[in-house]
Prior knowledge:
Blueprint: E1 5-10, H1 13-25, E2 31-36, E3 51-57, H2 62-77, H3 91-99, H4 106-118, H5 125-140, H6 147-159, H7 162-173, E4 175-177, E5 183-185, H8 189-218
Antiparallel strand pairs: 1-3, 2-3, 4-5
Amino acid sequence: MPEFITFKKFNDAALAWALTDLLEENDIEYRTEEGAFSFDPTFGASKELATEYVVKISPDDFTRATELLKASEANDIAHIDKDYYLYSFTDVELKEILEKADEWSTFDYELARKLLAERGVDVSDEAIANINKQREIELKKPEASQTTWIVIGYICALAGGVFGMFIGWHLSSYKKTLPSGERVYEYLESDRKQGRIILYISIATTTLAIIYKIFNATT
């Protein structure tokens, strides 16, 4: 069975279902998940705004699904009103959309590319390939050392409890997904090593605490 990882996230159900329809039409397997945001800015006032819709596909299908999505959005761009906010963007701002495509919707990405082409900026396939290559290199870089969380992790680990286990597990094994579908570790190898130690200590102290409580309860 193929591994399914997050391809796109939406806070609008209609957008999520439009994507799944596109995937079905092109025989791409997918999975969907629905859940609440970790932070709800509406404080529960609107269930729709507080819900996140996740569409997952196989990493092997990322490139094909991305191209299909771009082609689909290109049809909508032809009918966009000229008062759409990207029309007021400078060349530099539009280039930033291309450079950080993973932070923007496919629609905005395709429109930014179209506007730059109309302004005489080189957005050929070769130029885009170079931009994507540089972005992949940037995204592959691990986060800066997580010293604060490591300290907190050791404190929680020695105190026992689930929170220490979670910090240790997260530091040691968390991966991020690149636009290509490749998954890489989020943190430095040195931090991951500390995470494993925190995890083992947390398991040991928690186990000892449980055994102690059981022993006291039976004596």
